[in-house]
Structures are given as structure tokens and as C-alpha cells.
Amino acid sequence: MNFSLYDFIVLDYRILFLILSVKIASNSADAPISYWDESYAQPYFDNSTRRDITVTIGQTATLHCRVRNLGDRAVSWIRKRDLHIMTIGILTYTNDQRYQALHTEGSDEWSLRISSAQTRDSGVFECQVSTEPKISQAYRLNVVVSKAKILGNHELFVKSGSDINLTCVASQVAIPPSFIYWYKGGRVVNYSQRGGINVQTDRNTKTSKLIISRATVGDSGNYTCAPSNSDASSIIVHVISGGEHQAAMKHGNNSASSLFSHTKWKFYSIRDFSLSRFQSLFTLKSSTLVLLCSLVASSTFNSYVYVR
Predict the structure, then answer these.
(1) pTM score, two decimals?
(2) How far is CA 216 from the centre of its chain?
């Protein structure tokens, strides 16, 4: 078969076209789909960030908004209650210098930081993208007043010789306290010279326990739990030695103290009464007053009756 010069030229072009077609097909298979569609992709929110943030007064709150495929659009932070534009891009549009826009070049994250947060900062903030139509995502900020709580009532009655066992919880703090101190009056009891005092603090659960072994009347008083990052909580402890109730209620409330100062009381254990005897106390004349107090004794509760 005879080939002319023209036939060779046509064949070379066909071979070259075939090679180029294979090369392009190979590159297309290796390239991610997003490469071809990048110019047509729409921005969307990455929902991996927290959208309900709680901090205590004075702490720094940071709202993190991640936007994928942002392109040339802008990200803004809007305060929902008054539709005030707080930031656009990295610029801040408020006179409140506690607010600041945060963004690292090349990242998908656009954050709003509020330093020294106050309760008035609580509310909903929107992360908004300038698409058409606009898309937005809401974030809720809660700024709370942290206050510790000693479990139980505001007063505790303990029988002499038993243990005083107090538990304090600082549940509202966002960050575990670095320390929790216990005071009796104005004196720290954590390192008291009394002996028999044990303080157990767990930062993970934000709790602290104060245990005073073999309590005496001298252990009566006002006990305060003071975490490093929240308001303190107090409780009044009465250590009862037995005998006359008037001495036992020395640190009681004003109304009780006033009543007991004019009345002579006797101190009985419920165990001294049969059920019928106990029930009969409530049927006596109006001149007889019965007061029940819950006492802690060796991790069990004993009820006592005071009768005039």
C-alpha cells in the first residue's frame, strides 16, 4: 500500500488528537469535583461549632462562625434584638470596644469576641453572609451570675459528737473554679489548726465538701463556701449539746430566739415516745408548742421534740 505525504500528515494529527484526549480524560478523573464546580458553588455554614454559649459575668465570650465556599462574599455579625451590625468582615461597627471581629486570613472561621461579658450582652446574634438572598445562622449567648450553693437548708442542726458534713456546688460557672475556700465567720477553715477537718474538692464536678469530725458547740457558726469564680454561699450551723433547748438555739433566727427567751423547753428524742405519745403532743392545749428539728447524727437523721 502506497502512502502519500498527505496521508502521513493526517495520521499524525489523528494520533496527536488521540493522545491529547486521553491526557485530558486522565486529568479530569484525578481532579476533585469541587475544582470544576468551585466557581459555581454557593456558601454554606459548617455546623460543627457551638451555637449556645454560656459564660459568667466578666468572662470572655467568643462566637465562632464557619462559612465554606465564601468566595467574594462578606460575613457580618448582627445583634438580633436591635438589628445592630456589630461587624462586617474584620471591621467592627460599634462604639463598645469590648466587641471585636476575629478572622485568620485563609481560614473559613469568622468570630465575634465579647470581652468582660455582662448580663446585658445576653441574647441572639446572627452570623450573616452577603449572598442573594442572604443566609444567616443564629447563636445564643447567655451571660449568667455565678453563685455557689450549699446543699440543704440555710440552717443545719447537728448533735454534739456527730460530724458536720457540708457540700457546696458551683454549677453555673462555665470554667471549673481554680479553688474553693471554706470560711467560718472570717476565718479560713481549710487549713484550720482544730484538727478533724477534711476538705474534698473536685474541680471537674465543681463541688467541694467540708467535713468536721466530732463536732462540738464551739463549731457552731456561719460557714461560707467561696469558689474563685462565683459568688459565695453561706449556712448557719447549730451544734446541740443536749439539755436545755435555749442553749441549743443560741444562734437561731430572731423570731425563734425571741420566743425561746421567754419559754423554758425540754429536750426529748423521738425514740423516747411511742407513736401514740408523739401524736398526743399535737392535741394538747394551745399553750403547748411543739417544734421539730432535723438533726444529723453519724450520717443518720434523728428527729427531736421540744416541749414546754
Answers:
(1) 0.53
(2) 36
Cα angle for residues 289, 292, 296 (degrees, 5° grid): 155
From residue 26, how far is each of 18, 21, 199, 205, 300 by CA, in Å?
12, 9, 70, 58, 80
Write down the residue that cell numbers 460530724 correspond to: 163
Q: How far apart are CA 94 and CA 101, in angstroms?
A: 11
**205: helix, strand or coil:** coil
Residue (of 252, 264, 263, 268) closest to 305 by Cα position: 268
Q: Are 262 and 297 contacting, i.e. CB atoms less than 8 angstroms apart?
A: no
Residue of 24 and 208 predicted with greater confidence: 208
Q: Which of 279, 300, 301 is nearest to 290 (CA)?
A: 279
Whole-angstrom distance, CA of residue 293 vs CA of residue 284? 19
Q: Residue 2's CB: how many other CB atoms inside 10 A?
A: 4
Taking only the tens place, the pLDDT of each residue in 128-166 is 999 999 999 999 999 988 889 999 999 999 999 999 999
CA 291 from chain centre, in angstroms, equals: 39
State how far the Cα of 268 lies from the Cα of 278, in Å rounded to an integer. 11
For residue 191, the model assigns a pLDDT of 66
Over residues 13-67, the pLDDT tens digits come to 555 455 545 454 455 445 454 444 444 589 999 999 999 999 888 889 999 999 9
In angstroms, rounded to a whole number, what is the distance separating the alpha carbons of residues 135 and 76? 11
Query: Dihedrals φ, ψ of 282, to 5°?
Result: -85, -5
Measure the CA–CA gap between 279 and 162, rounded to whole angstroms.
28
